[in-house]
User: What shape does this take?
Amino acid sequence: MLVQQMQALIAWGSGGMEGLGLGNGRQKMLYLPYAHTDFIFPIVGEELVCGLVSRGFFVRSVIVCAP
Assistant: This one.
């Protein structure tokens, strides 16, 4: 497994059930250099609530807002 994917899994798992809070993610600072583009989903999972409802809401909002 590549380093970028491994760090994405670590970000996803470190959020826990309640998340770290918006803007408080640790993985995007040094470990995920492309967190704002390719790996936005693990960062959202780390910072916000990691429940199935929030993941579904995020995916639906990206699909609706995509041009």
Remarks:
- The first helix runs from residue 3 to 14.
